[in-house]
Design goal:
Layout: H1 2-8, H2 13-21, E1 29-35, E2 41-44, E3 47-52, E4 57-60, H3 67-71, H4 85-95, H5 104-109, E5 111-114, E6 118-129, E7 132-145, H6 158-161, E8 162-163, E9 166-167, E10 170-174, H7 180-193, E11 194-196, E12 202-204, E13 208-212, E14 220-221, E15 224-225, E16 233-237, H8 241-252, E17 256-259, H9 265-276, E18 280-286, H10 290-294, H11 297-304, E19 310-314, E20 323-328, E21 333-336
Parallel strand pairs: 10-18, 10-19, 13-16, 13-17, 17-18
Antiparallel strand pairs: 1-2, 1-7, 2-3, 3-4, 5-6, 6-7, 8-9, 11-12, 14-15, 19-20, 20-21
Helix pairs in contact: 8-9
C-alpha cells in the first residue's frame, strides 16, 4: 500500500530493509510504535503485531502473551526486533531533514507531520519554561499514525444533513477510534466539491474553512494538505480551534466551518460566533450517545441554544465512520444504520 511505503521510508536503512522484507507495506496498519529498548509494535486490523528479526516477518501478539515475552528484555536472544535509541534518533533526523532544531514548535506540540500527511507522535524529556513545555529532549518514544482517506464514506450520510439546499450544522458523536475524523474529512471534501444527489442532480459545492489544530484532517505537510479536502476548502493548520475559527471567518469568508474534537469554553464561544456570522458548523466530539453530550455543561449549553440541526452517532463496531443513527436538532432519530 502506498501509505505504508511512505511510512517505511522514514526508518533507518537497516530497519527499513527489515520492514520491507517483512512485507510491511501489505498491512493496512494504523500505527507503528517505537519505544527505546522495547520491541517494535504495529497495530493493524484491530490486532497487535511484533516484528521478528530472526525470521523477517510480523507475528501477531496473542492476548495470553506474558509480560516478559512482550517486553523482549528478559534475554539476549529475543527473536523480536528491539528498537534502539539510535534507531529513534536516526528516524527523527530523517523526518526533520537533519534539522531537528528547526522543528521546535512542532516538538513543543508533541508531533511532527511527514510527507504523505502521516503524523508522528513524540514523547521524551520535556523542557519546561514558566509552567509550559518549551520543547522535548532525549526523545525515546515515537507513535507513527498512518494517514488514510476513505473517500465516499460520507455519501450515504449527506442527504440526511441537507435542508432546503444547504447543509445543516452537524455534530458527530463518537467513541475514540471509531472514525469520526475519517467521516468528517470526507464530509468536508464532498461539501466543498459538491456531491451527486438522486436522479442525476448534483448539490453545488461551497467554501469550507477548516481549523486543523492537530493536523489530522488535512494532514498538511509544509502547509499543503496531503488529504483531499475539496477544491473550495481553506485550511488553517496547527492553529488553536477558537482562534482559528475567528481568523477564517474574518479573512476567508467560509460558508461552512469544520473542526475536530470540540470541548473547551473558547471552542463553544467561537462556534457560536460562527453561527451568528451565518456559517454552518461541522464538528466532532467524543461520546457514546447524545446523553453524553448533554452531560457536559458546555456542550449542553451550546446544544440547547439550537446550534446543531443534526447529530450523528457512530457505531462502536464496524468500519471507520459507520453511522448508527442520525438525530434532528431536537434529538429525535430520523435515520438508523447508514
Amino acid at each position: 500500500m502506498k501509505e505504508m511505503e511512505e511510512v517505511v521510508r522514514i526508518f533507518p536503512q537497516k530497519l527499513r530493509a527489515l520492514l520491507f522484507k517483512a512485507r510491511t507495506q501489505t498491512f493496512a496498519a494504523e500505527e507503528l510504535r517505537l519505544r527505546a529498548n522495547r520491541p517494535l509494535l504495529m497495530e493493524a486490523k484491530g490486532q497487535e503485531w511484533r516484528l521478528r528479526a530472526d525470521l523477517g516477518e510480523w507475528e501477531r501478539v496473542e492476548v495470553s502473551a506474558s509480560a516478559s515475552a512482550l517486553s523482549g528484555l528478559n534475554d539476549d536472544i529475543s527473536p523480536y526486533y528491539r528498537v534502539s535509541s539510535q534507531d529513534i534518533r536516526d528516524a527523527l533526523e530523517y523526518m526533520s531533514r537533519y534539522s531537528l532544531y528547526a522543528f521546535d514548535e512542532e516538538l513543543r506540540q508533541g508531533f511532527l507531520t511527514i510527507p504523505g500527511g502521516h503524523r508522528v507522535g513524540i514523547a521524551g524529556q520535556a523542557v519546561a519554561e514558566k509552567s509550559s513545555v518549551r520543547t522535548l529532549r532525549n526523545i525515546s518514544f515515537l507513535n507513527i499514525r498512518v494517514a488514510r482517506e476513505v473517500k465516499g464514506c460520507a455519501s450515504g450520510l449527506l442527504p440526511w444533513l441537507y435542508q432546503e439546499g444547504a447543509i445543516g450544522s452537524t455534530l458527530i458523536i463518537s467513541p475514540p477510534r471509531c472514525g469520526k475524523t475519517t467521516l468528517l474529512r470526507d464530509l468536508i471534501r464532498q461539501v466543498s466539491d459538491g456531491w451527486a444527489m438522486a436522479e442525476g442532480k448534483k448539490e453545488k459545492g461551497v467554501t469550507v474553512g477548516v481549523v486543523d489544530e492537530r493536523s489530522e484532517l488535512g494532514a498538511c505537510y509544509q502547509g499543503v494538505p496531503q488529504h483531499d479536502l475539496g477544491m473550495r476548502t481553506d485550511v488553517l493548520d496547527a492553529c488553536p480551534k477558537a482562534e482559528g475559527i475567528m481568523m477564517l471567518i474574518r479573512s476567508m469568508a467560509p460558508r461552512v466551518v469544520a473542526v475536530d474534537e470540540i470541548g473547551s469554553r473558547e471552542d463553544m464561544e467561537a462556534l457560536r460566533y460562527g453561527i451568528n456570522c451565518g456559517c454552518r458548523i461541522l464538528a466532532t466530539v467524543h461520546g457514546n450517545s447524545l446523553e453524553d453530550v448533554f452531560n457536559k455543561p458546555l456542550l449542553r449549553e451550546l446544544a440547547e441554544s439550537g446550534v446543531f440541526a443534526r447529530y450523528v452517532l457512530l457505531a462502536p463496531q464496524g468500519p471507520p465512520g459507520k453511522v448508527s443513527a442520525v438525530l434532528d436538532g431536537e434529538g429525535r432519530v430520523i435515520c438508523r444504520r447508514i
